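Title: Prediction job returns without error message
Component: structure pipeline
Severity: low
Priority: P3
Assignee: unassigned

Description:
Job completed but the reporter wants confirmation the result is attached to the right record. Sequence as submitted:
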Amino acid sequence: MRSKARRSAQMVVAAILIIGLMIMSVLVTVYETHSLFLRTRSPVVREVVGAITADFKRALASMLAVATRAYFNYSEFSDLTDRFSSYGMSMNNRHNFTVARQVAKTYLEYWRQSITKAYGEYGVQVSYEILQLDLSKELGRQRTVYNLMKGYWYLPTSGSYAYAKLRLNITAMGFYNWESDVLVGLTLTVYRKPISVTGQNVTIMINVRQDGSLDYSTSPPSVVGTPYGRLITKGWVRIYYPQMDASGRFTGKWLQAKIRDVTYAGMGNYSVTFEPSLPVLTDLKGDQYVPIMVVVSDERGIIVEASTYYYIYFAVQRNTPNTTLIYYDSSGNKKTLTRPSDISNEVYTLEMSSNLSLFWLGQKLSVDPTLKLPPFPYIPIKQIRVNVTLDGTTATLRERPIQYENWTTVVWHGEPVDYPVGLSDPQMDFVKGDKYNTKLVFQVKFPLNSITKQIVALWWHDDLDTEPAVYQTQIQYIYKREGGQVTWKDVWHPLYDVEFVDLEHQQSREYGNYYGVAAFVLWNPSTDNAFGPYNLHAFGVYYGNLGRYRPYGTWQVYYNYMRYSWIQAPIRIFAVLNTTLVGNVYASGDVRSDYYDTIAIVQVVNGTRYIPVITYIYWKNTRSDEGYWLATEMGKGVADQFLYLTAGLQTIENKKLANWTYNSPFPWKETPRVECYPDPGIMLAHWSTTNNIGRALVLNRDGVKKLGEIGGSDARFCTTKFAPGNVKQGSIEYAFWPSTTSKTVQQGRKLSYWAVLFDFRSSGPGFDNYGGEEMWKNAYIYAPMFLEDYAPRIVKP
């Protein structure tokens, strides 16, 4: 049996061998026939295939050159880029790689049709397929070429690439299904640590690679670039360095360096010596670098831009008291108030400009002089992101929302005033402009009293296709027009709806007609009941009614990005008033241009309990009247308790005390109908002990100072018990002088101040347990964060 089985197996093996030989014989015959076919036609076939393939590669390279040159500097290369304006390329779209890609596809279709016509006698059929190419070996990080073209810039290893599979038939010669992967690319690596730094110059090493060989053992295929040795003879290199002021601080402006020497060291490596000398900086990991940007181009015009660093980092140090606050009770006795361990309502909404200045409530923050911040690379705004810690350690250094805002500085009555004019166009460069400048806005939170520093790292995406991020937010702008009238001009916030009344939205939904006076009304989002309006400024009386002339005009509300209108502001929504007029809230048509000018900036801020109002006032003429109010917050009868802190500028009962709760807190009562107390200081508050809801008005030091300068001993905190019509009110008011006093304000008087509306409760996250008459303390524990001398500082991590 074994012998028969063995013989059977041998016969099967033999049969397989015979079949294999027959198949090989057939293949050889086919190959010989095909070879004969090619030999008789190969000169023409090879020439046509080679010419079309080379031309396709040139077309790809030219399109990548157009895209990268437009992205780098459209104006400089406009002689090239403007040729494709009919395809959609323009200065306005220079940082839009999607447009560049569409231009390339349109051009390649034109190229395809031209090739078909040029080789019509051969029956050429040409097309291309867009595939993916793995760049991880080339760039040292996971990146891919897809959708024809990609650029990955602004990091120490950067590159520009285009990749497609060419397909070709030459029907007249019976030549079909020719395929060829075509790659064009340029890769630049800047070795971060300089070779040498002298008092006059810096020498660095760079490596440049072009195109490369494909590795099909991976899916998608990968590439390793070929060393490029023609940079000196065929291409070019530029280096840009950051300008420094006399103190050695970077200004944010970039200048082109003077290159003294470029030497080729082989294998795509070049040493580059340039002037001027620069300081050597150290990043979070301890790596050293000089802050520069390097740009290279090959002979095809393809450009790559690289930076020597990945991010800018620093720490924000809060400056508010850690544990204890001081105040004086109604009798003048010194008291202490212990801040809770949970201070999660201490959230700073910071701004950062391209010159590395940081701001809080418009105040420029102090920076540790030993902190050397490198400037932002010369990049589009849309690339920039921010990471912030929550516990002060790098373990919680995570991406947080960022907002891009467009600001301008104007000379307003002889003084520079900085104010927003909208959200930015994210495709523009993050550099200082002649008129407009972008500020990066982000939030730094201090959830616990034990945390005094948070680390901030601002970084940038390398992908040129990067779009602005869409972050979740709880604020939203609502604008409705019904029956020809604006009925809603609101910003919704979880704690309050803010209704902006003005010239186009004169009639508040519940509170009354303001006849074009600009103010904003706070609503309870739960009950849709009005808390009452915040009035920016007011002067004089009108038949016994307080605050006759107030700023008159239209709020400009900024809530979405230019070019990306579907992305709403994630951090804050602005309302800006810039007016030369005042109006009478009690009478239509009583509008004057000869009193004072106003700029007011209102911020509704996501994830916070505060609404900052930054105000600028300029008096054009001398005026006298009864009553002059810096700011007032109405109450709609909700509040039943009131409190104020003294400034310590006036003598009361032979005492000068700051933060004295003089004669307060006190309950609402019908008489006197206007109740006033001297020496108003940093905080006023009113609250409901029934609903456990309160609002404080915190005034900055400069505002308190202006009250004393203008009002003198007549400066007052007041509360008005009833609105016109004998409607219960219960306001809190900062008055230069009350309506019982007539005084004069002089022509040329300028005021700039901020007031912050702060929502507080009797208990809850970030608050201690203070009910009844003590509820104001939950506002006071946060009041210092809004004062100039307690502003955070920028320090080393």
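Comment from assignee: result matches the submitted record. The chain has six helices and 54 strands.
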